[in-house]
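Sequence only, no structure available. Ideas?
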Amino acid sequence: MRFALSTQAFHDLAAILDRIRAENPLAAERYGRLFRRTFGTLAAMPGIGTRADGAGTLEFTFQRNYRIVYRPAGSTIWITRVVHVARMRSHALGSG
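Reply:
I predicted one. Tokens follow.
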């Protein structure tokens, strides 16, 4: 399988890496590589993670602080969101 990022996931990832880059450009490069490697792992082993909803979406924890939300579709897994855990909580609580 291969992976693809939705427009939203692409923007999520860009914002995360921009925030990291502002403090530490080398760390941002390293995180970018780690995210891509993890996306590849998800494509190689679709189905790992926890069920996120009844529509076949799964969540995978990345580096303890991020959730990668994805769904397998044919020969591709679609990364639909990449979200920091704190942002997920604030959305769940209605404050974000």
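Residues 2-92 form a domain with the YaeB-like fold fold (CATH 3.30.2310.20).
Hope that gets you unstuck.
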